[in-house]
Amino acid sequence: MHQVVISGTGLYQPPYTISNAELVEAFNRYVDQENARHAAAIEAGTRAPLAHSSVEFIEKASGIHQRYVLEKTGILDPARMYPHYAERADDQLSLMAEIAVAAAEQALAQAGKSGADVDMVLCAASNMQRAYPAMAVEIQQALGAGGYGFDMNVACSSATFAIEQAVNAVRTGSVRCALVVSPEITSGHHAWNDRDCHFIFGDVCTALLIERADLATAADTWEVLGTQLATQFSNNIRNNFGFLNRSEDSDPNARDKTFRQEGRKVFKEVVPIASAHIESHLAALALQPAQVRRYWLHQANQSMNQLVIKKLVGEASAERAPLILDEFANTASAGSIIAFHKHRADLQAGDAGVICSFGAGYSVGSVVVRKR
Ligand code: CO8
Question: Are 94 and 138 in contact (CB under 8 A)?
Answer without folding.
Answer: yes
